């Protein structure tokens, strides 16, 4: 399972994807809302909805975008990878939108 995070723009966007099944769970919250500031709760809800534990990898959007917004997702992804040993990758947010 792959956890995808991007908070560089006007929304916190998070999703879980399975390489075989595609998108399993997703969430989007406008920037500045309580939900967008509690990334750990959003991720926990996604993992519970998908019935999965620790993801195999986490991908974080690296911007361009606001400094604090970008830092939020990248820092969370880095901490999760350090704590669980899952693979960590970054992807430019514009490249992700273009794909």
Structural notes for this entry:
- The protein has helices at 34-37, 39-50, 67-84, 93-98, and strands spanning 2-6, 11-18, 22-30, 57-61, 87-91.
- By secondary structure, the protein is of the alpha/beta class.
- Strands 3-2-1-4-5 form a five-stranded mixed sheet.
- The protein has a single domain, classed as Nucleotidyltransferase, domain 5.
- β1 (2-6) and β2 form a beta hairpin.
- It contains four helices and five strands.
- The mean pLDDT is 90.
How are the elements arranged and paired?
Elements: E1 2-6, E2 11-18, E3 22-30, H1 34-37, H2 39-50, E4 57-61, H3 67-84, E5 87-91, H4 93-98
Parallel strand pairs: 1-4, 4-5
Antiparallel strand pairs: 1-2, 2-3
Q: Distance N terminus to C terminus? A: 19 Å
Q: How many DSSP-defined strands?
A: 5
Biggest sheet overview: 5 strands, mixed
Helices and strands, in order, run as EEEHHEHEH
Mean pLDDT: 90
Content-based structural category: alpha/beta
Strand content: 25-35%
Shape: globular
Classified in CATH, the superfamily is ATPase, nucleotide binding domain
CATH topology: Nucleotidyltransferase, domain 5
Strand order of the largest sheet: 3-2-1-4-5
Total count of domains: 1
Runs in which pLDDT lies below 50 for 5 or more consecutive residues are none
Helix share, percent = 40-55%
The total count of helices amounts to 4
